[in-house]
Amino acid sequence: MAEKRNPIYLEAQARLRDFITEAGLQPGDRLPPEAALAERLGVSRLSLREATRSLQTLGVIEARHGNGLFVSAFSFRPLIEQLPYGLAAAGTGLEEILTAREAMEVGLMPAVARLNPQVELAECARLADEMTALEERGEPITEVDKRFHLLLYRALRNPLVDNLIEVFWELFTRLGDSIPVPPEGGRGAVHLGIIRALQSGDPSESIAAMQQHFDDIRARAALLRAPAEDAG
Fold it and tell me: Contacts by 132-138 with C-beta closer than 8 Å and gap 24+?
């Protein structure tokens, strides 16, 4: 029975996706009631329920208690939440995530430099100073660091960029928790250097400053492999 039901459930899911697109539904729009929707899609209500549960998990639609189903705003959050915890093993995929994140953030520097969003850059500078203060007290900077990187690209007004930055950040944080922290600090200063380069308005300076940031991460990440290589 399960083998016969799965194709129907997948077909219901595909038909529901097509319906959302063809009907021109936007985030926040409500879907028709279950009975009417099942009839329109030509599937059973049971298959439709399975399809809607799956699409809720994927973040395509959302259920609002007592109000029905609605089209969700695009987000990579469901992807992050569905990541297998085994992926977080130290060193697994770290270099791949670092390379992808580096390519994106370094590549975005000229666009941010051209905009020169003074309010956002000033707040990022404040966050960099906060990182330095945390380092001096021996406290973690993870949350402030995340706020820095998310705010840095806000002026681009590009939701896809915002989502990807968050995805890369979450992935990298899960994989890179064990990256050694420099006892002498300095990470706040590196972030502040990025902001000063952006404020100069010279795209090449901003690219170099962000590249330095990732060179620092890569050098520290390499220390994770050193013991195993030495043992070999």
Answer: 132/185, 132/188, 132/189, 132/192, 133/188, 134/188, 135/185, 135/186, 135/187, 135/188, 136/185
